[in-house]
């Protein structure tokens, strides 16, 4: 009969541990979008790369301004979308992602 109260106490304690959310849970916000273009006198590939990098930098600034500094990292974001296009003289990129933080 000693095991029954101990078992019940253990079950209650275990249930309490499961109900507690981790302190460092990943938190994501609504998507942020940004754009950029490049018409630098470079090759098509370099123009597109430059437009993509500028669009991601713009996204980072927008995410920071909207949700706070801890949401500014593109590499931590989810549902990343990058769409680039343009002409022979100019490239443009649109990026979108949900900014996330680990704390």
Task: Kindly summarize this structure in a few lines.
By secondary structure, the protein is α+β, with helices and mostly antiparallel strands. It has helices at 3-19, 44-67, and strands at residues 27-28, 32-38, 78-86, 91-98, 100-101. The protein is 40% helix and 27% strand.
| Overall pLDDT metric | 85
Percentage of residues assigned to helices: 25-40%
Major sheet description = 3 strands, antiparallel
Q: Which residue ranges are poorly predicted, with pLDDT under 50 across at least 5 consecutive positions?
A: 14-21
Q: Tally the helices.
A: 2
Task: Bin the strand percentage.
Answer: 25-35%
- From the helix content, strand content and strand pairing, which structural class follows? alpha+beta
User: How many structural domains can be distinguished in the coordinates?
Assistant: 1
CATH topology-level name? Translation Initiation Factor IF3
Q: Care to count the β-strands? A: 5
Approximate shape: elongated
Element string (H = helix, E = strand)? HEEHEEE
CATH class: Alpha Beta
Going by CATH, the architecture would be 2-Layer Sandwich
Strand order of the largest sheet: 2-4-3
Radius of gyration over alpha carbons?
23 Å
Euclidean distance between termini CA atoms: 45 Å
């Amino acid at each position: 009969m000693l095991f029954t109260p101990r078992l019940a106490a253990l079950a209650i304690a275990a249930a309490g541990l499961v109900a507690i959310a981790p302190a460092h849970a990943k938190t994501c916000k609504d998507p942020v979008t940004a754009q950029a273009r490049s018409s630098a006198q470079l090759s098509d590939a370099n123009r597109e790369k430059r437009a993509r990098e500028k669009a991601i930098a713009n996204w980072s600034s927008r995410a920071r301004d909207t949700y706070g500094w801890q949401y500014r990292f593109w590499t931590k974001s989810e549902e990343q979308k990058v769409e680039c296009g343009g002409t022979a003289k100019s490239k443009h990129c649109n990026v979108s992602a949900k900014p996330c933080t680990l704390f």
